[in-house]
What does this fold into?
Amino acid sequence: MISRSDWELHHEAPGAVVMVAAALARSWEPEKVREALEGISKTGDGWPQRLAYELAHNGDLLKEVIGELKQGLQVSPQLIDEVSKRIGLQVNLQPPS
It folds into this structure.
């Protein structure tokens, strides 16, 4: 198993999950992203699904991650691809505006 850095675990991984959820929701509105996160959380039992569940049920954390993305948090394309593959969907990503 590949070990992830603290940065990846606390910033990039949540950012990747939120980016995928926002793409599925076609919106960066927190409530729509939360609904998409709920859907992702039901697609299996991998780390993206567990993280999606946590984000969907913690509005403050979700808003914090969206804020980091809006401030320019860069998430590696490989991590976004990994999230997409683990949930079984391919998405077109749009950065937050």
Remarks:
- The CA atoms of residues 30 and 59 lie 8 Å apart.
- The helical segments are 6-25, 30-41, 47-56, 59-70, 77-87.
- Residues 29-79 form one domain.
- The two ends are 35 Å apart (CA to CA).
